[in-house]
Amino acid sequence: MTTLTHSSDTLTRDALAVLQPGFHGTTAPDWLLRRIGEGLTSVGLFGRNITSPVQLAALTAQLRAERDDILVAIDEEGGDVTRLEVHEGSSFPGNSALGSVDEVELTRAVARELGSRLAACGVNLNWAPCADVNSDAGNPVIGVRSFGADPALVARHTAAYVEGLQSAGVAACTKHFPGHGDTAVDSHHALPRIGVDSATLHARELAPFRSAIAAGSKSVMSAHILLPALDPDRPATLSPRILTGLLREELGFDGLIVTDGIEMQAIASTYGIERGSVLAIAAGVDAICVGGGLADEETVLRLRDALVDAVREGELSEERLADAAARVRALADWTLRVRGAASGPGAAGQEGTASGIVSPGDGSDIGLVAARRALRVTGAMEPLKEAPYVASFAPVANIAVGDETPWGVAAELAALLPGTATDTYGGANGAAEVLAAAGERRIVAVVRDVHRHPWMATVLEGILAARPDTAVVEMGINHAEPTGSPHIATYGAARVCGRAAAEALTGRGA
User: Fold this and answer.
1) In the chain, fewer beta carbons within 10 Å around the N or the C end?
2) What is the pLDDT of residue 348?
3) Active-site residue among 157, 176, 180, 188?
4) Residues 295, 24: contact at Cβ < 8 Å?
């Protein structure tokens, strides 16, 4: 047993301070407000909490009324992973599109505008950007969330994104350390393993994180992955060797270390969330992200009590928990100071108010500009003049992306060519069904990572054999050989990517 040097109340407040929980609803529940009063310092927001920028600003103001320096975090990568525009699709292309353009100033400008919109709604911590090098083209969870497969490209764009986001007063959280790009398993479902040697990891996976740290990233998110070359026994989130030895001591990172969702199966099914949280804090983590799947008071109390009990039983150092809580409060203090500077004399608006809020489709069009720049067209065709038939081929969405957010080109084409017809197809459908539904209309086939889905490639092949004038729009990783008349690669499925593709198909681009 350890001898506690602080009161039980201090210990409980520190345990609450290191949690970043979610909740249900578009207003803060009473239990969450009570826990903020007891020491909770962070809250995580998801798509279920957001209906509009104005509603989000009211929610964050409600939270800030309880604690002025509360960290309000969100998983807003832009592109395929959006919470701010979960029901509309993002106004910003994701990392793959930005990496394909490869202009760091454009990436910095997109991140700055995204950060400005978050700040105007009262969000001050973004669990972004992804710094993963997508070296495995079959990766089921990263894909277009990555800037690309080249470590140097990913490194320079990660740094630019961090700089742009934080220039708007929103703390960046560079993820998923030490790199989730070379995995064939989604850590939401199981524990991935990267079997390459240490030299490869240092040269490839770690390069973007070095750049993010040099750019001043305020936080880093750990990955639930096993890297035997670094630690053969524990996944990165629970590994002192990786978090303390590598990230803190070798790479010199002094900011906040946040876990990926602790309820993800890579941790929960092996260690359990309570044990996993204790091991994570002991390994060097400062904040436990939870709430994507478990978003209730009971979860918060379970984790709080697990941490308090671990200190009392000598399993977790009281000093380590206090240090973690201090790092959380230090970041909260930074956001408070930045917000104060932004709302001073001459500032355009204040965080968490209706002033300065930009709704989807309004304000800066930097996202659409970037989406247009990212577009790659192979082959040629006469612009569509009549309403086509859009066949969208939908793979099962990974949990990070979710299935709430619309994607594709049908809605954007319908706005330009009224009468456009569409349907969505899955693995049980064949080319004959698409051809019958299309009739005499020109077909636009919309795919997503066709190289990863043999059923999709087979159906597409059948359509093209019968109708070689079919246009193909790839909204995922552009890895397969281009087919179609033409083939259009958007490098992501954000709303603006769909609009850019529709403009190209109709010849109505800017």
Assistant:
1) N
2) 41
3) 188
4) yes
Taking 50 as the pLDDT cut, the residues of the chain under it are 1-5, 346-355, 358-363
Query: Which one, of 254, 253, 274, lies nearest residue 262 by Cα?
Result: 274
Cα 465 from chain centre? 38
Residue owning tokens 């060797």: 241
CA-wise closest residue to 479 among 466, 496, 491, 463 = 491
Catalytically annotated residue among 260, 286, 449, 453: 260
Q: Is 53 helix (H, G, I), strand (E, B) or coil?
A: helix
Three-state secondary structure readout of 244-304:
HHHHHHHCCCCCEEEECCCCCHHHHCCCCHHHHHHHHHHHCCCEEECCCCCCCHHHHHHHH
Per DSSP (E only), the strands in 319-384 are 376-378
Helical segments of 343-425, H only: 366-374, 410-416
Q: What does DSSP assign to residue 444?
A: E
Q: How far apart are CA 26 and CA 147, in angstroms?
A: 32
With contact defined as beta carbons under 8 Å apart, do 167 and 114 qualify?
no
Contact 476, 79 (CB under 8 A): no
Active site residue 224: no
pTM: 0.93
CA distances from 398 to 117, 137, 139, 142, 268 (A): 26, 15, 11, 9, 18
> To 10 degrees, what angle do helices 30-37 and 53-66 make?
40
pLDDT for the residue numbered 6: 52
* Model pLDDT, residue 510: 60
Task: Let me know if 188 is a catalytic residue.
Answer: yes
Q: What secondary structure letter does DSSP report for 426?
A: -
* 67 token code pair: 């604690």
Contact 168, 119 (CB under 8 A): yes
CA angle 479/480/483 to nearest 5° reads: 135
What pLDDT score does 439 carry? 97
